[in-house]
Specification:
- It is a single chain.
- This protein is an alpha/beta fold and 243 residues long.
- It has one domain (2-240): 3-Layer(aba) Sandwich (Rossmann fold), CATH 3.40.50.300.
- The protein is 30% helix and 24% strand.
- The protein has helices spanning 46-53, 74-80, 97-102, 112-118, 134-148, 164-175, 190-196, 214-217, 220-227; strands at residues 2-5, 14-19, 27-31, 36-40, 62-64, 81-84, 152-156, 182-187, 199-204, 207-212, 231-234, 237-240.
- Strands 6-7-8-4-9-10 form a 6-stranded mixed beta sheet, sandwiched between helices. It has a 4-stranded mixed beta sheet with strand order 1-3-2-5, with no helix packed on it. A two-stranded antiparallel sheet has the order 11-12.
- It is globular and about 50 Å long.
């Protein structure tokens, strides 16, 4: 199945052609400067696809702006695409949040304090990264994405470690058309995907099952076809029916 998401500037694009491994099966897609949500159940291959799109899986089957990522210098590559994992990997346990974020501020002159304030985490500025809760670390990663300001930013399960009071901060960022350019969001949260209103790619067992608009994916007949009455739209929310 081939996914094509068109945009006016056809020079800027991520292409995957007939990629398969032990998780993904015959994946072909084109992403042209448009926001995209990739959803699916646990084990469907979402994170593997995210890493593939980010150029983190060595292969000749992917191109970013018509160039294989392995042939792009690191600094140029980081200006094109940035992968935000679901958890923070600390290489120095004594690095502070501010010092960590300075490493991300390569392609912009954005003020770190302003970015932290935007996400309501300015109070974390001088804390050591090793002392952050999982939710705080997730918000710091999101702050790094604003400072990094790549053409494409891939968020891998950006709300997975957050309590409900902080999810709204991430939602604000994911809807932001000013501080981030183009977003690819990996999630299993159907309600988040519905509220964001971006195009949907649905993975199941390593295969692309659906690709298209948000409205078409969350049409009641399509939900019934994919989820067999276990997922329903109720009062403008997507809920799991346990009955």
């Amino acid at each position: 199945m081939i996914l094509k998401i068109y945009y006016k500037d056809t020079k800027k694009m991520i292409q995957v052609n007939n990629f398969s491994n032990y998780i993904l099966k015959d994946i072909s897609l084109e992403i042209k400067e448009k926001n995209l949500i990739i959803i699916g159940s646990n084990g469907a291959g979402k994170t593997t696809l995210a890493k593939l799109i980010a150029g983190l899986i060595p292969t000749q089957n992917i191109k970013i702006n018509n160039i294989n990522p392995s042939n792009i210098f690191t600094k140029s590559k980081t200006s094109l695409i940035n992968y935000i994992p679901s958890s923070m990997d600390i290489f120095d346990e004594y690095i502070s949040v501010y010092e960590y974020l300075k490493l991300s501020n390569l392609h912009t002159s954005k003020n770190i304090d302003e970015v932290l304030e935007y996400l309501d985490i300015l109070f974390l500025k001088d804390q050591l990264c090793k002392n952050l809760s999982s939710g705080q670390a997730q918000l710091v990663l999101c702050a790094s994405s604003i400072l990094h300001n790549a053409l494409y930013t891939i968020f891998d399960e950006p709300t997975s470690n957050l309590d409900p009071s902080k999810v709204k901060n991430i939602f604000k960022l994911l809807k932001d058309e000013i501080n981030l350019q183009h977003k690819i969001i990996i999630t299993h949260d159907l309600n988040l995907a519905y509220k964001l209103q971006y195009d949907i790619l649905f993975l199941d067992d390593g295969k692309i099952i659906f690709q298209g608009s948000n409205d078409k994916f969350f049409d009641e007949k399509n939900l019934e076809n994919i989820f067999q009455n276990s997922v329903k739209k109720v009062q403008n929310n997507i809920v799991v029916d346990f009955v």
